[in-house]
Amino acid sequence: MGETDLKKRPNWLAPALVAILAGACYYWLAGPFVRPQREQDVVLAAGKSGGSPKSIEENAGQAGEVRPSGPLADPVAMEYVAAYQQGRLDDIVRLTCWMQDRLGRLRSNSAPPNEMADAMEALQARSRERSDDGNQLREEGVEDQYVLAPGAVVEPVGMDSGRHDLERPAKDRTWVRITFLDRLAALRDQDGLPIRSLVAGINVSEDGLVLKANVIGNLDIDIDSIQTDWSRTSKETGHDAGMLSQM
């Protein structure tokens, strides 16, 4: 390259290269702090739309596995899920707002120990009760034990600020995707079809209690997320039923 060629080189080239290098450095340094929030928004949107049967199959872990990724879940909400999947009846009562309110009214009225014990037993019995008739989603909702069932895969997919029209304002709401692996035991939709997967919201109060969000049950059920495609059932995929590990 001769002296004439050097003189003809554009005088803007060096500043442009510096700008490109600076932009690349910012992306790689700042990117890890910016991208998770965008990904969380995308995951929540995908979760609430239910995704395709293929994406459900690819994203579902082993039965009973919860796989949080970043700030996608309130710990109280996930403990509530674990309590139902593991049959921890004491914890279900301890974490459920309306149940604690009922026991609190008895205590404030100086109820005798046997009455308190009877109330606790009745609440526990309600939490473990299962029937064919109850295992169907209705317009009024469904009891939580049919949604957070042992053997289902539960995955947190996002959080929002929750509802403020409940018994007390929510601090946040955790959305979880539930994938059923056994067609015969799966929750049925309003038409009686076995549900493959759905997304549900768990509203948590400031004092760490799960709020009642339906006439029946405590969960916000995202109706639009319901998938009933069982082209690949648990038998076909080889998934075994399981339970959540101790949290």
Strand content bin: 5-15%
Mean pLDDT across all amino acids: 75
Spatial shape: globular
Number of strands: 4
Secondary structure tally, helices: 9
Largest sheet: 4 strands, antiparallel
What does the model show?
By secondary structure, this protein is α+β, with helices and mostly antiparallel strands. The chain has one domain. The chain is built from nine helices and four strands; from the N terminus they run H-H-H-H-H-H-H-H-E-E-E-E-H. It has a four-stranded antiparallel beta sheet with strand order 1-2-3-4. Helix 4 runs antiparallel to helix 5 and helix 5 crosses helix 7. The longest helix has 37 residues. The chain is globular.
Give the tags.
single chain; 247 residues; four-stranded antiparallel β-sheet; 14% strand; disordered N terminus
What's this entry about, in short?
The chain is α+β, with helices and mostly antiparallel strands and 247 residues long.
List the helices and strands and how they pair.
Elements: H1 3-8, H2 13-49, H3 53-59, H4 75-86, H5 89-95, H6 97-108, H7 113-128, H8 144-147, E1 153-160, E2 170-179, E3 197-205, E4 220-227, H9 234-237
Helix pairs in contact: 4-5, 5-7, 6-7
